[in-house]
């Protein structure tokens, strides 16, 4: 269950690593990236604005809607247009990112913002707040199943854990299934990730199981494409306490013949205490792992649910 994890490849906005590349000559040092994730990741850093030749410091830019197009303009002089340069840079840069497992972008950036960006009209009036930075929009269009998250959202423990879980599933898929021409590899992947998927979405757990059964005898590449898309969408759902409890109760059923009445009650109590917020997830999981060592079960031992990412990252609250 406890396994060694290879380093994952993470794209990241350079300012989040402490590089002084922002428009004001500063940075947005992200503690999690610099103090935790750095020990488990190979970083691929980028600053799109510096990438297109903008200076440090530089005049601020903004997203502007004009003639039904989103432009990237100087915030004080709308005649200075960086749109084409940024689109060309983004397309070329993102084309080289097929090997990444995740990407962390800078919030509130007209190039890197992932969501809720301010959009202005040509006169400088804010007209809405649902824009996406041009670079990040290109990234998500070219790599729709790539886990992408903003720095600010990673300060939320649930969103941080969810992002990292998706990163490692993405890496596992590309290592074992993406380039395989064997149906058995897809079946094995699904079998190993069943309870992890269930912890995010029971509906996806059922739906993906039907896909793998492949009763329609669809071509493998088509099947893999749909499976991976559904999987990565499903994993965006937060694995909350109720869902985790459901999974652990399923797992508890595998020990019904081995456990004493006392052991069963102890595990049931821990699961309920976790559901009530009295103990962390590690408490019932640790007891389950103890029972699994005492009463080995090959199917359970291969489940990524028990080790979705390195325990040392300290994410499993």
Automatic annotation (TrEMBL):
One Pfam family here: 2-thiour_desulf
Source domain of life: Bacteria
Coiled coil: none
Domain DUF1722 intervals: 194-310
Protein name: DUF1722 domain-containing protein
